[in-house]
Design a protein that fits this description.
This protein is α+β, with helices and mostly antiparallel strands and about 350 residues long. It contains two helices and 16 strands. It has two domains: about 100 residues; about 210 residues. The strands form four sheets. The chain has an eight-stranded antiparallel beta barrel with strand order 3-5-6-9-12-14-15-16. The protein has a two-stranded antiparallel sheet with strand order 1-2. The longest helix is centred in the first third of the chain and has 61 residues.
Length: about 350
């Protein structure tokens, strides 16, 4: 019995050795990371202090504050970052002590992991839609360029001889969507009434023909013809990559802080006027119909005699981060068709904060 008990104890001890070793190694690595983090904390706070002092000096040069006020602000910033170092390093020391005292305890969210992905925060202001970067990065004194995700959707149709082609395409069934990325730069140094907005977008313009028709490429031109069976769905779509540029006008609010300032257009009226140019990525047609009781879905991808170069004008009128958005292609959809059709879209745009 004693031999069995002894063997059991030995077996348990041997089996537990790899786990204990791996766990000890993991704890040691965590402690090393935390120790290295303390040095990085000091560097981060020094960089932040340097940026703060540069901002104060800029305000002093601009005549916004006196030299005495500048010195007072610098003293406050120095005290603030010194306390930040003290408090943050103390947190790291506490985590190290906790790890050393409880070898089997997992400490999450080390201070060294400062890389974050956030929605509705760019690390400096709360204006951008998505922010990826350091959580505690130093603020710039003046940031003239911001960026944001672009998303738009709405109704789509064509203009023929100056009139809407609602007899050619279904008004409610023809739709468009757009998404991309846009940068916005303040034009003037001391004013924010004019901004330039530029970037890239993917546009998807869908058209649904009326009267059971679909598009046929005859080689010389592309024609709408009546389909032999009853169509449940007939949709023609153009996918484009474009590079829009808009001049944006509108009021803004200046926010002054000790070490930086910003212009905010939140809850302000915005007007954007501009245009776009780019390339067609694809043109395709989707048909769905019943063939002797069997539902058939047919997808066709080809040139369809469509223009490869896309260019047009666009505009938006918004409040906050939502606006009414319109765009109009100056190029014709088809190259050699006797009737010129130009795409037009109207909908909502989200990116204007």
């Amino acid at each position: 019995m004693r031999l069995i008990t002894f063997c059991t104890v030995i077996t348990v001890w041997v089996l537990s050795m790899p786990f204990t070793w791996a766990q000890d190694t993991q704890v040691t690595e965590r402690i090393e990371i935390l120790e290295a983090t303390k040095d990085r904390i000091v560097d981060e706070e020094k960089d932040a202090l340097k940026a703060s002092v540069e901002g104060i000096n800029q305000r002093l040069e601009n005549g916004d504050i006196t030299e005495a006020e500048a010195n007072e602000l610098k003293q406050k910033m120095a005290e603030k970052h010194a306390l930040n170092i003290e408090n943050r390093v103390a947190i790291i020391d506490n985590k190290i002590e906790l790890l050393e005292r409880n070898q089997d305890m997992e400490v999450l969210n080390e201070d060294g992991d400062r890389f974050v992905i956030e929605i509705g925060n760019d690390g400096e202001d709360d204006n951008s839609f998505i922010y990826i970067g350091k959580q505690n990065k130093a603020r710039k004194y003046d940031r003239r360029t911001t960026s944001d995700f672009v998303f738009a959707f709405g109704l789509n149709n064509v203009i023929v001889d100056g009139e809407l082609g609602d007899d050619i395409y279904k008004v409610g069934g023809s739709r468009f969507a757009e998404f991309g990325w846009a940068w916005k730069t303040r034009v003037f140094k001391e004013s924010n009434w004019l901004r330039v907005k530029y970037g890239f977008s993917f546009q998807f313009n869908g058209l649904k023909p009326t009267d059971n028709r679909y598009y046929v490429d005859t080689g010389l031109q592309t024609e709408l013809q009546t389909f032999a069976s009853d169509l449940d769905k007939s949709k023609f779509r153009l996918d484009n990559l474009v590079f829009p540029v808009h001049f944006e006008f509108g009021p803004s609010k200046k926010i002054d802080k000790d070490t930086y300032f910003r212009y905010s257009t939140r809850k302000k009226l915005k007007v954007g006027l501009g245009g776009y140019a780019g390339l067609k990525l694809s043109s395709r047609q989707k048909l769905r119909y019943d063939d002797m009781g069997q539902e058939v879905e047919r997808k066709e991808k080809g040139n369809f005699n469509t223009n490869n170069f896309i260019y047009g004008v666009s505009a938006y009128l918004g409040w906050g981060d939502v606006g009414l958005y319109a765009k109009y292609d100056l190029n014709t959809i088809f190259k050699d068709n006797p009737v010129e059709q130009r795409n037009i879209s109207l909908g909502l745009r989200f990116d204007l904060e």
